[in-house]
UniProtKB/TrEMBL annotation:
Residues 20-371 form the Enoyl reductase (ER) domain. GO terms for molecular function: alcohol dehydrogenase (NAD+) activity; S-(hydroxymethyl)glutathione dehydrogenase [NAD(P)+] activity; zinc ion binding. This is Alcohol dehydrogenase 1-like. It comes from Seriola lalandi dorsalis. Belongs to the zinc-containing alcohol dehydrogenase family. It comes from the Eukaryota. Keywords: Metal-binding, NAD, Oxidoreductase, Zinc. PANTHER family: ALCOHOL DEHYDROGENASE, ALCOHOL DEHYDROGENASE 8A-RELATED. InterPro entries: ADH-like_C (IPR013149), ADH-like_N (IPR013154), ADH_Zn_CS (IPR002328), ER (IPR020843), GroES-like_sf (IPR011032), NAD(P)-bd_dom_sf (IPR036291).
Length: 376
């Protein structure tokens, strides 16, 4: 492409400081360095993790947020052989180098090279190819998809089917894989089992979909917003429980409805008190509870006896998918109509409307808003 090897000036939504609206700016994106890929972002969606960094973190600014996107390779740096200009790709916030001990182990989807040269406590990295008004702009979780162009290490890029619609499959960069995989890969839901999913945002609805795909007999959708129940039914929920309708703990309600507790529970909100409720909703002898919702603000707690009898409490990041392997397969499953994606999209906007999309998510008035970033 004509832009290869040159600095690209393009539009991006810059978060200059925490808790403030994003600003549409012209930024400079330098060419990819060794083992890097420069991607033209076609579509991206807004995820709660973007809001978490914007509203809860104090460090890591200015930055370009966004990590649920899809685009087309514009150019590649030295040493890149897996990708070429024109490839359809999804940037990944979890890398897969395929060489480290983590990547070679079936026990984890983490990669030891994921945070090479970065502070693992910070979601935004100074190892960035962005500048704006003469200032370095940090890259968010290695992706930064709220920009017309971004530069990503090749170990954090998945090549996908060239027929895939980018304005749909961008959602597979985070939320859908996170929830679906938490049920299928992490909880390992079994046919005929009972499940409870706490929180019916995109991740929770994807977890419901994963429970159904795994053959669960009853799937309890738990949320304080009854408007979400009809949507949950689309993804496979069989029962709906609103904690506000009961004067006893939700764990007790579910235990009474299931003869002692569910086999599997998934917390998809990121609140420590709900994590405990989800654990206590499992049957004591063999229940498995998975923490899916992201937070790093508070400690969580439980009494040892809640685990001693046989419960398992575990976490799930990106649904346990090894990213470069899992995302292309999920795209294929979508094209083969094995998983739903379109049903998660409630709004379509442009990058210029990113603050409106953020406001919709803050007010829980959307599941996913897809932003059109660049023409294909």
């Amino acid at each position: 492409m004509a832009t290869a090897g040159k600095v690209i000036k393009c539009k991006a939504a810059v978060a200059w400081e925490p808790k403030k609206p994003l600003v549409i700016e012209e930024i400079e994106v330098t060419p990819p360095q060794a083992n890097e890929v420069r991607i033209k972002i076609v579509a991206t969606s807004v995820c709660h993790t973007d809001l978490y960094h914007l509203l809860e973190d104090e460090a890591g600014f200015p930055t370009v947020l966004g990590h649920e996107g899809a685009g087309i390779v514009e150019s590649v740096g030295p040493g890149v052989t897996e990708f070429q200009p024109g490839d359809k790709v999804i940037p990944l916030f979890i890398s897969q180098c395929r060489e480290c001990r983590f990547c070679k182990s079936p026990k984890t989807n983490q990669c030891e090279n994921a945070w090479s040269g970065r502070d693992p406590q910070m979601m935004a990295s100074a190892d960035s190819r962005f500048t704006c008004k003469g200032k370095k702009v940090l890259q968010f979780v290695g992706t930064s998809t709220f920009s017309e162009y971004t530069v990503v290490n090749q170990i954090a890029v998945a090549k996908i089917d060239p027929t895939a619609p980018l304005d749909k499959v961008c959602l597979l960069g985070c939320g859908i894989c996170t929830g679906y995989g938490a049920a299928v890969n992490t909880a390992k839901v079994e046919p005929g089992s009972t499940c409870a999913v706490f929180g019916l945002g995109a991740v929770g609805l994807a977890a419901v979909m994963g429970c159904k795909a795994a053959g669960a007999k009853r799937i309890f959708a738990v949320d304080i917003n009854p408007d979400k129940f009809e949507k949950a039914k689309v993804f496979g929920a069989t029962d709906f429980v609103n904690p506000k309708d009961h004067d006893k703990p939700i764990s007790q309600v579910l235990a009474e409805m299931t003869n002692g507790g569910v086999d599997y529970s998934l917390e998809c909100i990121g609140k420590v008190d709900i994590m405990r409720s989800a654990l206590e909703s499992c049957i004591p002898s063999w229940g498995v509870s998975v923490i899916v919702g992201w937070t790093d603000l508070e400690d969580f707690s439980a009494r040892p006896v809640q685990l001693i009898a046989g419960r398992t409490w575990k976490g799930s990041l990106f649904g346990g998918f090894k990213s470069k392997d899992g995302v292309p397969q999920m795209v294929k499953d979508y094209l083969d109509k094995k998983v739903k994606v379109d049903e998660f999209i409630t709004h379509n906007m442009t990058l210029d409307q990113v603050n409106d999309a953020i406001e919709l998510m803050k007010q829980s008035k959307c599941i996913r808003t897809v932003l059109s970033v660049s023409p294909q």
